[in-house]
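FORM 12-B: Structure-to-Sequence Request
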């Protein structure tokens, strides 16, 4: 992770919360190893020397390295554009296979309902495709909570670029110092800290299969800049003070923060 800048100044109260999707709100058990291997395979088909890319790197880093290799290889004009068009199709196909087994993460629905009742604006920032994200949200019943959604299918930077988060917050009408980003991966922490947005980590659900990667522990989240870490979504609700009955709206008030 790049070095952190000076500590940002956060204002109270929060106005909006952005969530990561897979692993944080829904559990789909993606075959990320197969996805990484497929991106490497596609890159090698477009001229990257076999063995130059590692299947142990996150997908976004494999893609970045592939772009650099193709651009510097003297490949015919248009090769990079064809790579950019082809690898997402392969990922999308593998991702879609997970939809039938995608379920809501325990605690997500009551958490989001409580936040909505308190007037928070809610959004999703994910590296999943638009099709997967919208279908997974609909399948799990979480779609109505999220009028704001940014996926890897959107034009422009993708997570963990801070600009991806800034773009979504502008759409939500939320300044960065009044926002919170919640995720289950260090990529989410990287995105938030680079964007100077407060970040809360959520530990992986016990049902999530191990991938061989080092687990994202509370210590690793805090070292990456998290302001707090929750064991699960019920614990997150307690941290956000929305675990109980919503507070009554003051007379004449709208409840909007």
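FORM 12-B RESPONSE
SEQUENCE OUT:
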């Amino acid at each position: 992770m790049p070095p952190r800048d000076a500590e940002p100044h956060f204002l109270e109260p929060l106005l909006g919360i952005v969530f990561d999707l897979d692993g944080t709100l829904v559990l789909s058990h993606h075959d990320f190893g197969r996805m990484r291997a497929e991106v490497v395979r596609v890159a090698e088909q477009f001229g990257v020397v076999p063995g130059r890319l590692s299947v142990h790197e996150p997908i976004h880093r494999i893609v970045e390295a592939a772009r650099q290799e193709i651009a510097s290889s003297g490949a015919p004009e248009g090769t990079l554009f064809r790579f950019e068009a082809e690898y997402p199709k392969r990922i999308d196909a593998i991702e879609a296979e997970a939809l039938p087994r995608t379920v809501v993460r325990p605690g997500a629905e009551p958490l989001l309902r409580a936040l909505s009742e308190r007037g928070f604006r809610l959004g999703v920032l994910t590296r999943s495709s638009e099709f997967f994200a919208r279908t997974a949200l609909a399948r799990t019943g979480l779609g109505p909570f999220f009028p704001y959604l940014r996926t890897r299918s959107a034009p422009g930077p993708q997570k963990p670029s801070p600009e991806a988060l800034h773009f979504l917050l502008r759409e939500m009408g939320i300044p960065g110092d009044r926002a919170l980003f919640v995720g289950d991966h260090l990529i989410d922490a990287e995105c938030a800290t680079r964007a100077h947005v407060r970040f809360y980590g959520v530990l992986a659900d016990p049902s999530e299969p191990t991938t061989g990667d080092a687990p994202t522990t509370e210590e690793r989240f805090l070292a990456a800049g998290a302001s707090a870490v929750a064991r699960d979504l019920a614990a997150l609700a307690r941290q956000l003070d929305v675990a109980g009955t919503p507070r009554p709206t003051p007379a004449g008030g709208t409840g909007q923060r």
